[in-house]
Design brief:
Four Helix Bundle (Hemerythrin (Met), subunit A), 5 helices, 0% strand, electron transfer activity, Cyt_c_II
């Protein structure tokens, strides 16, 4: 009986930890999906000749909020079952710097939408997307 209890006491924390990490992977995948959808919406709003500034401000605020979530969604140990390359955890400072650069672009987009500055909005969007592409090349596995 003692062995069974000890086995369960050992197994459940490991199981709970694995579930938490799996949850973080799913959460970060969802956040990336949200950012992609919102970025497409922002691009369409920016490209529209009659920009709906209120909608662009709402979308850019949501993108900014979603992007900040990513800073906490790559904890050590969450690489198992992830599409991210090991370099995310081996060189976390470089990866974090790229995430922060993406956030800066989305912050610029948000600021531009509040100021109704089309040129700045385009720059912010391009900066964020350029960082996304660079990060995917460096840190995302193809399989």
């Amino acid at each position: 009986m003692k062995i069974a209890v000890l086995s369960l006491m050992t197994f459940f924390p490991l199981f709970a930890g694995a579930q938490a990490l799996d949850s973080e992977i799913k959460q970060r995948q969802q956040v990336f999906s949200n950012i992609e959808i919102l970025s497409e919406q922002a691009e369409e709003l920016i490209d529209d000749k009659n920009t709906n500034w209120a909608k662009l401000e709402q979308v850019s605020r949501e993108i900014k909020q979603q992007s900040f979530l990513l800073l906490d969604l790559f904890p050590q140990g969450s690489q198992q079952g992830s599409k991210a390359k090991q370099a995310v955890w081996n060189k976390p400072q470089k990866f974090s710097a790229q995430l922060k650069q993406m956030i800066i672009g989305f912050e610029q987009l948000n600021q531009a939408s509040q100021e109704r500055n089309m040129h700045l909005a385009g720059q912010g969007m391009e900066s964020a997307q350029s960082t996304c592409r660079s990060c995917h090349r460096s840190y995302r596995s193809r399989w």
